Amino acid sequence: MKFLIKTLGCKVNQVEGAYIIEHLKKAGYTLAEKEDTAQILILNSCAVTEKAYKEALKILRNWSKLNPRIAIITGCSAQVYGENLRDYAQSLKIPHFIILGHNQKSNLEEYLKNLETPFQMDVSFTLDKTSPLLLEEFYGHSRAFVKIQDGCSSYCSYCI
Fold this sequence. Notes:
Elements: E1 2-7, H1 11-26, E2 30-31, E3 40-45, H2 50-64, E4 70-75, H3 76-80, H4 82-92, E5 96-100, H5 108-113, E6 119-122
Parallel strand pairs: 1-2, 1-3, 3-4, 4-5, 5-6
């Protein structure tokens, strides 16, 4: 099955997006070159600004017109606005819609195996669980970034 991932936001999201690509390819999925050829569309979202969240909603709306079999949103928007995204997802009429928080995105293929229900949401989050992401290749980049943490509890004024 073909998938495509779109990553918005920070360098952490870029590392995690590259990890998702590598992990799904190892699990037997194929990376699509275009959105309209993918059965699985994945949005690794950002929520630092309201504009970033609205961009995620716009992308999901546009994807619903492509009739994907599965749409997945993960990242900060999924973590922070999971309930709002659940309501929005129901209006999009995508056969399978999955919302995954920070702690679940590294096990995305497990959610793809369980498609008995049309909607899945798991945004449970703890700071004590950091998953190391080891990459063999950093798709689309000449230099890699290193992920050192999953969120924090400092509550900086510029961060969601």
